[in-house]
Specification:
single chain; mainly alpha; globular
């Protein structure tokens, strides 16, 4: 997460984190569907309008680190070293994200998500949004010279790699296996192979 620099930004970030932490604690204690937005706001000692100024929906409270996830994937494309191949950079980032999301401390959160149709639907919509953001970053890089369709396909493969590996019995081995296929797909979209 980007560290806010000004006092106002730090206060906003602290309020956002307090709301998210409170919501997650209540959801884990009582179940996602049993807790309302007003209860979260009251427990976090903020107005409902303040809660909604930080989070667009109840589901967003559970996925409060989604923006960081999206930003990290984009930066894996835009901040990689000159002439560094794309797929290894994305693989490293997905591997780090999978390690984080498969830590024992995250298991209760994933159970909460798996048990809620609303949260599963929200996660699916986030994955599509992340894939589009990643595809835009890939397509915008002139060194990569791939079509918009190829960029979108690779981005979806990468996002799906995260989901599949997170759910696998051996997540790190799954990342390796999936990224061998992603690498092959990336090579198949090379401009030299299209001619």
């Amino acid at each position: 997460m980007t560290v806010p620099t000004g006092r106002r930004e730090r206060k906003k970030a602290a309020t956002r984190q307090k709301i998210a932490d409170t919501a997650l604690r209540l959801f884990l204690e009582r179940g996602y569907d049993a807790v309302g937005i007003r209860e979260v706001a009251a427990e976090a000692d903020v107005a409902v309008t303040t809660l909604f100024s930080h989070f667009a929906s109840k589901e967003a409270l559970v996925f409060e680190q989604g923006e960081d996830f999206e930003q990290r994937l984009t930066q894996a494309v835009t901040d990689r070293a000159p002439h560094e191949p794309l797929i290894p950079a994305l693989r490293r980032e997905i591997q780090a994200l999978v390690r984080h999301c498969t830590a024992d401390s995250t298991a209760p959160v994933w159970r909460l998500i798996d048990e809620s149709p609303a949260l599963r639907k929200y996660e699916d919509s986030m994955r599509l949004r992340f894939a589009e953001t990643l595809a835009t970053a890939i397509a915008a890089d002139p060194q990569l010279s791939r079509t918009a369709t190829a960029s979108r396909a690779i981005a979806r493969f990468v996002i799906d790699a995260y989901s599949l590996a997170r759910e696998a019995a051996e997540p790190e081995a799954a990342v390796d296996e999936i990224f061998r296929m992603v690498e092959a797909a990336w090579e198949a979209t090379s401009p030299s192979r299209r001619t």
